[in-house]
Design a protein that fits this description.
Low-confidence stretches: none
Strand order of the largest sheet: 1-3-2-4-5
Protein name: Phosphoacetylglucosamine mutase
Mean pLDDT: 94
Strand content: 15-25%
Structural class: alpha/beta
Family: Belongs to the phosphohexose mutase family.
Helix content: 40-55%
CATH superfamily of the largest domain: Alpha-D-Glucose-1,6-Bisphosphate, subunit A, domain 3
Oligomer: single chain
Number of helices: 19
CATH topology of the largest domain: Alpha-D-Glucose-1,6-Bisphosphate, Chain A, domain 3
Shape: globular
Number of domains: 4
CATH architecture of the largest domain: 3-Layer(aba) Sandwich
CATH class of the largest domain: Alpha Beta
Distance between the termini: 75 Å
Catalytic activity: N-acetyl-alpha-D-glucosamine 1-phosphate = N-acetyl-D-glucosamine 6-phosphate
Number of strands: 19
Cofactor: Mg(2+)
Function: Catalyzes the conversion of GlcNAc-6-P into GlcNAc-1-P during the synthesis of uridine diphosphate/UDP-GlcNAc, a sugar nucleotide critical to multiple glycosylation pathways including protein N- and O-glycosylation.
Length: about 550
């Protein structure tokens, strides 16, 4: 024991000396504090050098603690080009745990002279053996600041004696995939970009063999790459898809600015096509976001009206396809769709009443959705913004694999179970992945012989409206029932309930923002006018009962 402790002490002293020297090259601006949120750290790139170095340190500690490879992704996703950020990836490709998010915030905000003290504090709390080897995978997006910031991460890892694999330019989901492949020792796939393209394209080609007589028009898809990393990787993947998909790529990064008037977030918020895309009537189009972990689809009809197919529509398409296959394969597995309060009421009703699919509602934020989806044999989750994936439990995957090998199953069962197997291989189960989700959607539409219009017609969204009310302290609002009901301030929920009763097919809820002193208001009803009117009335109630500041909310019309 004594020898072990002496060695540990020796390792720490040597490593801390190097951390102390190297951290001077990545100094923290005094007084700057940042919080590790759902999306990691995100702010203007010029404030992030010290954060990146310190996340390199933290990832090394996490690797020693878990005896696994950890990922660090340098990206700010759908934020403007001048911002940047960083996310940590845990061993199975999932987001880092809440406890370690706390350590990230603690380490990021330590003033320069107390950095070593904070580091030692984490090592002691977690009882980390510093003589353990460490392995960290690092990736970055295409932002101008990403090169120097990812170098700061590499510096952090090496100063604690960790080994790195620098993947360079990758999408966020690709790095999640690599980490999972490495820690499952190749069971999930090969931890290379080529391995990723091969696994996905092979599954896609197997699925599309089941689509009869597809025309070139049906294989054609317009893709908005948000002038980001997704465009770059789509170009690399195209040869792997052979002639089964004809991608017309716009906003490919050759001239436009990242996320500027393009990308999934822009399309979703503006309810409009991105700049730089020439859409024909009824043509299928989709947009990735800046780091390619979100996707939305859309088309324009013969009257020139824009139709958005968001995360709710994607979850509905995929879950109904999977449910049909389970029935055909004679598999008794429970499939559930996980939604948040923002999911359109029409989608919930269609899933529960028509498709008889279990729907579970959870708090907003990908972490909550992912966690809830793990409770089922098959859990489908998509946020309305287009971030989502499908999770298959180990037991479900085993049942499907056993049935594939079963010599006694009839042709219908065989076909269904082979389709299920290929679908599992096509889905990136670690995290929402725009490229993987796009291929799943394209395969499902092809197998079912559906156009974007057919898909859109599955159900009609209820008109809705989202508003924000500025308040002096957002913590005044407290919610329950997956954020669908307010428990404080007193009287607010009763007021909302009585306002909702005035409208048809109506529903409304309020929740505090996770990042700023505003309260978000959501309302839906049978007409746009009613939804707008209800949203305004609820905003007024929030303003009056929850300490609104500035001018009283004005009616929308």
């Amino acid at each position: 024991m004594l020898i072990h402790e002496t060695m540990q002490c020796f390792y720490e002293m040597a490593q801390f000396k190097e951390v102390s020297q190297k951290s001077k090259l990545h100094p923290k601006p005094e007084g700057l504090t940042l919080q590790y949120g759902t999306a990691g750290f995100r702010t203007h790139a010029k404030h992030l050098d010290h954060i990146m170095f310190r996340m390199g340190l933290l990832a090394t500690l996490r690797s020693k603690k878990t005896k696994s490879t950890i990922g660090v992704m340098v990206t700010a996703s759908h934020n403007p080009e001048e911002d940047n950020g960083v996310k940590l990836i845990d061993p199975m490709g999932e987001m880092v745990t809440a406890l370690w998010e706390g350590y990230a915030t603690q380490l990021a905000n330590a003033e320069q002279d107390s950095l070593l003290k904070e580091l030692k504090d984490i090592i002691e709390k977690e009882d980390i053996n510093m003589s353990e080897p460490a392995s960290v995978y690092v990736g970055k997006d295409t932002r101008p600041s990403s090169a120097s910031l990812s170098q700061a991460v590499l510096d952090g890892v090496s100063s604690l004696g960790g080994k790195t694999h620098d993947y360079g330019l990758v999408t966020t989901p690709q790095l999640h995939y690599m980490v999972c492949c490495c820690n499952t020792h190749g069971c999930y796939g090969s931890p290379t970009i080529e391995g990723y393209y091969q696994k996905l394209s092979q599954a896609f080609l197997q699925l599309t063999q089941n689509a009869l007589n597809r025309t070139d028009d049906q294989k054609r898809l317009l893709v908005d790459g948000a002038n980001g990393i997704g465009a770059l990787k789509m170009r690399e993947m195209e040869p792997f898809l052979r002639s089964e998909m004809q991608v017309v790529l716009s906003n490919d990064g050759s001239s436009g600015k990242l996320n500027h008037m393009c990308g999934a977030d822009y399309v979703k918020v503006q309810q409009n096509a991105p700049q730089g895309m020439n859409m024909g009537v009824g043509e299928r189009c989709c947009s990735f976001d800046g780091d390619a972990d979100r996707i939305v689809y859309y088309y324009t009809d013969s009257k020139g009206c824009f139709h958005l197919l968001d995360g709710d529509k994607i979850a509905t398409l995929i879950s109904t396809y999977l449910k049909e296959l389970l029935t055909q394969a004679g598999l008794n597995l429970q499939i559930a769709v996980v939604q948040t309060a923002y999911a359109n009421g029409s989608s919930t009703r269609y899933l529960e009443d028509v498709m008889k699919v279990t729907v579970c509602c959870t708090k907003t934020g990908v972490k909550h959705l992912h966690h809830a989806a793990q409770e089922y044999d098959i859990g489908v989750y998509f946020e309305a913004n287009g971030h989502g994936t499908v999770l298959f439990s180990k037991a479900a995957q085993k049942q499907i694999q056993d049935l594939v090998k079963d010599p006694n199953s009839n042709d219908e069962r065989k076909r269904a179970v082979k389709l299920l197997e290929s679908t599992i291989n096509l889905i990136n189960q670690t995290v929402g992945d725009a490229i993987s989700d796009m291929l799943v959607i394209e395969a499902v539409l092809a197998i079912r012989g559906m156009s974007a219009q057919d898909w859109d017609a599955i159900y009609t969204d209820l008109p809705n409206r989202q508003l924000k009310v500025t308040v002096s302290d957002r913590r005044v609002i407290d919610t329950t029932d997956a954020e669908r009901r307010a428990v404080s301030p007193e009287g607010l929920q009763d007021t909302i309930d009585s306002l909702v009763k005035k409208y048809k097919s109506a529903r409304s809820f309020v929740r505090p923002s996770g990042t700023e002193d505003v309260v978000r208001v959501y309302a839906e009803a049978d007409t746009q006018e009613s939804a707008d009117s209800l949203a305004h009335e609820v905003s007024l109630a929030v303003y009056r009962l929850a300490g609104g500041i500035g001018d009283e909310p004005k009616p929308l019309h």
